[in-house]
Amino acid sequence: MKHPEQDDKRTFFGLGIAPKILELLEKMEFTTPTPIQYKAIPIGLEGKDIIGVAQTGTGKTLAFGIPMIQRLTQDKSLGLVVVPTRELAIQVDETINKIGSPFGIRTAVLIGGAAMYNQLKALRRSPRVVIATPGRLNDHLNQKTIRLENVKVFVLDEADRMLDMGFMPQIERIMQHLPKERQTMLFSATIPEKIVRIAAKYMKLPIGVEIAPSGTAAKNIAQELFIINREEKPKLLEKLLHEYRGTVLLFSRTKRGATRITKGLKNMGHRVAEIHSDRSLAQRREALDGFKSGRYRILVATDIAARGIDVKGIELVINYDLPDDSENYVHRIGRTGRAGHEGRAISFATPDQRRDVRNIENVMKKSLPVAEHPEVPAAGFEVAATRTFRPRGRQFNRFRGPRKRR
């Protein structure tokens, strides 16, 4: 299982990993560590604080999971992993269980939308690792159904995403319950100022591990941008879905839009499911499981799925709507091109979205290749009228026009 940036000469041997965990990794067919794993695992095993910066899909769960499990086998302490979404919590739990269960290390998942009774039952079984979303973990802390004074290893995964979702107050309340003597590992695709403040306040001389510049996307993802009028989006989508035959993850900006797109795709005869915050946890699990198993070819999602969906073999990511936050573009397209596979990301932009595209390009530090489809009328970005003021607070420069799609 080779990552495009992996060095074939590197192995998990020599990183300080215990022989039994090495055997487990071999059974899981993990033979070559990804760059973030190669750099972060030895530091994590030493018990040092880490700030890990790596693009999505680079194996961060094992980068903190291996040191956590190995350190927890040395005593009766606890591990705590806090993540932004329910889907990511379930994914992390699956990975941690693979390396923890052979050591008798049980886990508990504390997420909103799931029955509190089942979570209390899991907590009574004395789990050694707790994976939680911030809101539900605070619910348990308020009800005194969990205590965190024995936490030895604390992980904030996808920290920038949690801050984007407004979880900073909940995270700070959680940290007040943690012991001062602990290891903290923070992983993120970007490092905004708020994360720097967290590091200064709550971490002890953290070691930075940066694999790719903040905001960069995987190299093996081919990207295209179509500039079209809004009413042409359904037609272009239908043409692309006939051109590409594999699995498709499609992003809508709003929940209502996701439902409307899903209905339209069903009317076209496609096998499609939707996932967003208005769907129940059971509905979201069914959609994700169905997408993984092939029951659904297309998954329509809002940005709740930009991270935390670990589905191998997604052929195409379509940004039907550009994200509100330009940094989410990186996380969206990172759902394809995983584990060394080739991937493709196609984005739709309307003529009034020149600034949104430029913001994405600034984050990516590269231009998005513009394409056009022979059966769908192309458009160009709007050109601002020659005036002495900026209309509606925005001004557009002339765009040289789309180039032919290869």
From TrEMBL:
Gene Ontology MF term list: ATP binding; hydrolase activity; nucleic acid binding; RNA helicase activity
Domain DEAD-box RNA helicase Q positions: 10-38
Entries under SUPFAM superfamilies matching the protein: P-loop containing nucleoside triphosphate hydrolases (SSF52540)
Annotated coiled-coil segments of the chain: none
Domain Helicase C-terminal, residue spans: 236-384
GO cellular component, one term: cytosol
Pfam short name (any one): Helicase_C
Ranges spanned by the short sequence motif Q motif, renumbered to the chain: 10-38
Top-rank lineage group of the source organism: Bacteria
Location of the Helicase ATP-binding domain: 41-209
Listed InterPro entries: DEAD/DEAH_box_helicase_dom (IPR011545), DEAD/DEAH_RhlB (IPR044742), DEAD_box_RNA_helicase (IPR050079), Helicase_ATP-bd (IPR014001), Helicase_C-like (IPR001650), P-loop_NTPase (IPR027417), RNA-helicase_DEAD-box_CS (IPR000629), RNA_helicase_DEAD_Q_motif (IPR014014)
Family note: Belongs to the DEAD box helicase family.
Protein name: DEAD/DEAH box helicase
